[in-house]
Amino acid sequence: MPINILMPALSPTMEEGTLAKWLVAEGDNVASGDVLCEIETDKATMEFEAVDDGTIGKIAVAEGTEGVKVNSLIAVLLEDGETADDMRAAPEAAPAVDAVAEVAPQGVAEKTAPQVVPPAPKGERIFASPLARRIAADKGLDLAGIAGSGPKGRIVKADVENATGTATAPAPVAPPKPAAASDVAAMYADREYTEMPLDGMRKIIAARLTEAKQTIPHFYLRRDIHLDALLEFRSTLNKSLADKGIKLSVNDFIIKACAMALQEVPDCNAVWAGDRILKLKPSDVAVAVAVEGGLFTPVLRDADTRTLSSLSTQMKDMAARAKERKLAPQEYQGGSFAISNLGMMGIQNFDAVINPPHGSILAVGAGEKKPVVNSDGELDIATVMSVTLSVDHRVIDGALGAQFLAAVKANLENPVVMLA
User: Fold this and answer.
1) Residue positions annotated with a catalytic role
2) In whole angstroms, what separates CA 118 from the centre of its chain?
């Protein structure tokens, strides 16, 4: 009998998701454990595996479809010897259930009564639903010691909840669910407002930044940087480059200074990769660019080896194309570090949110005339810019981040080194 594959609940709070990408096509043969598709939940993009062997007879939901309800039909799997004609006899998809309830991991309607399969021997692959794996991790349970009652012995939610074992870590307290849109709207029922549905970019920004603040242990390092030498140096360079139509901005110098600092403190040129740290060799610097309805972070690759004029030219080009939504994905993905400059808008200082998987981001404030004590111990006036480095403590420790920020400060306060 053909098997209905249903939209799974990949998190306890998931009620619907986006079928981001199919990794199989109709007519493809699949084996248990093969990845069928990628599903975007409210928190992340997750792979969805097959439980049974067979042939994909029908794909019911096209990739890119948003708002696919949990437990709705997304595909039909044909067993050995079955054809497309047999799909007419396939059982209807089960009605939607509470998103917190366990859904058969691949949405398979069980054809026989549940049968408990003994725990897998050591060394063998363990099949378990994503929800079961998450609960087991929270409770500190070893899946190898749990008998599965799902299809072909797959471990499901009930198996983990009924299992006993020594917990290695306390279960985290579930975060409070955000207020429903209808509840928020009800609060303002007597006020005039315009409802603005979220477009794809805003949804991604909301999801990514929520992920960043909930999962990345941020800490912050602040320095004041004196800009007078840089401003004078920039003025001299711009006069000499005027005939070529090149005008360097302070931001161009900041990009170059940070790229060089990543080489001077290479352990900061790193990203978080889940269970490891990836340490990059080139300095690929992302720069936040505001666009209508959101922002892009174009990545300037190999910025440490580039001239100031080439960085300036490329940055202007990428910023212009970002505002027209014409950047290719490879132009705004990657990098280990980012710069967010609101100083040009008059902001004195701020704390930026790290864009995962980056290890850090530099928030740049405005350069302002301030009274300072000079090297001779006398009161003086200087142009001072405040910067804040937001750091992922999983990747970079405090002393290391301080070394990086000191290198950025040294490069900007002695700008001639950036031409070496």
Assistant:
1) 393
2) 38
CA 186 – CA 407 distance, rounded (Å): 52
Kindly report the length of the chain. 420
222's tokens: 């602040």
Lowest mean pLDDT among 27-36, 83-92, 196-205, 328-337: 83-92
| Residue partners of 337: CB distance under 8 A and separation at least 6 | 258, 262, 268, 269, 283, 284, 285, 286, 358, 359, 360, 361, 362
State mean pLDDT over 262-290.
Answer: 95
Check residues 148 and 350 and name the one with the higher pLDDT.
350
Q: What is the pLDDT of residue 389?
A: 98
CB 45 within 8 A of CB 22: no
Task: Give the model's pLDDT for residue 101.
Answer: 35
Q: Which residue has the higher pLDDT, 412 or 128?
A: 412
Domain 3-162 and domain 211-419 have a common topology: no
Phi, psi torsion values for 295, nearest 5 degrees: -155, 160
Average pLDDT over the chain, rounded to whole? 85
- Contact (Cβ atoms closer than 8 angstroms) between residue 102 and residue 114: no
The correct CATH number of 211-419 out of 3.30.559.10, 3.30.565.10, 1.10.3210.10, 3.40.50.410 is: 3.30.559.10
DSSP string of 74-120, one letter each residue: EEEEEPTT--GGGGGGSPPPPPP--TTS---TT-PPPSS----BPPP
Say if residue 327 is exposed, middle or buried (CB neighbours under 10 Å; 0-12, 13-18, 19+). buried
State how far the Cα of 300 lies from the Cα of 409, in Å rounded to an integer.
Answer: 20
How far does Cα 236 stand from its chain's mean position?
Answer: 41
CATH 2.40.50.100 for domain 3-162, yes or no, is yes
Which bin fits 67, alpha (ψ -120 to 50), beta or left (φ > 0)?
left
Structure tokens at 158: 């009930």
Residue ranges of the domains in the chain?
Answer: 3-162, 211-419
